[in-house]
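Ticket #4471: complex job returned nothing on first submit. Input attached below:
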Amino acid sequence: MEHPAQRVSALMERYASGDDAVFDQLYDLTASRLYGFCLRLTGDPPAADDLFQETYLRVHRARSTYLPGSDVLHWAFAIARSAYRDRLRYWRRRPEHLGSLDDAAQQAAQQPDEGNTPDAELTADHLAQVVTVELQKMSETNRSAYVLLREEGVSLKEAAAILGASPDAVKQRAHRAYQQLRAALRRAQGTEGSP
Amino acid sequence: MIASTDDRWRIATDGREAAERLRGAVRAAVDATPVRLVGFRAGAGLALAAVLIATAAVVATASSIVYGRLAVGLDVLPDVQLRMQTVLGLLVLLVTGVTYASLTRGRHGLGAPVRLLVASALAAVPAYAVLVLGFPVHTGDPPALTAGVSPWGARCLLVAAAVGLIVLTALAAALHRAVPTASHWRGAAAGAAAGLWSGAAVFVFCPAHELGHLAIGHVAPIAVFLLAGLIALPRVLRS
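Support reply: We reran it on our side without changes. The output follows.
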């Protein structure tokens, strides 16, 4: 039986050679993970939608350069991150647009916080929310490394290739992100536990 | 627990309708964007062929105009023939290696490891300088050989600029959208490769031996092209 990654790779090879008919299948097999990655990068659904669309457009434009047999999702992750970094550069040059970056973290932080109600328990939703907010507070390099290694289950070598960094640097970034998240979760638990 | 990717997809797209809207938007954008289907290998092959032909043409033309014959830089006295062959061999290896590092897509299709790109970019200028300044093959003897050499390497700068620009353009065209990672270091490595091609061209073209001439006319262009690649290429590679 064909492995899913091999199937995606075979479809991508057909798409790269000009077979437009396979786009929908390719989309079905890659969209959810790619969207999840975009959402983790941006922390904000509307921004994730934009990044997701731009990523597919870039994949489409670069399709003839796809290396047969390589992991399509990893390639798409690298393209998504490159597109996201372009957006960050654009926003940095135009500070008036920085609101969209800050809003993501603020929006997540301002969600109804059931954990702060007197008799609430520390729910899985609340923990996930803490993680989402904290991910947006950290640097993009740490966030990307953490998401790839801890959430997407990508190996260290592959993550290094996707991020264009050395494995040691990626390991260090993911560790920093992990420590930051752990500290945030501890703080959240402390808040929950306090009278 | 952290929500799984599928959960995030479902939550963020707020059900089937939103997911379909997103798919429709992607599909429309893709359908409205025509692409040229030139494979990377074909593009890189064309680029390298163009580099070889153009470099040979520039050196041959410049040599004919200035010296009236070809490859004067390779014309040395019999007692330094072995040194010349060694330096030339190492130079060819250096140019090939750095060009390969900047062009390869590696095992994952995501380019050479960033350490290789950094090493290629940073090693280009010192390695070339050691080869041409540390192991001089010309002595200015016989004088007839160096009669046409410009004092501060102005002609060499022109030849290096022409060759380097051609190589940088060809590599940028081959790498355009091909590798989505480490664009700055890949740009720097491509710039270093362009600089080394220009360095190889002037090595073949010019029989100068003065330190000032070699530093300005032969070595400096490599540093300039490295910087040009670092500054100008990343955007071209990504867009």
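Chain B has a mean pLDDT of 87. Closing as resolved unless it happens again.
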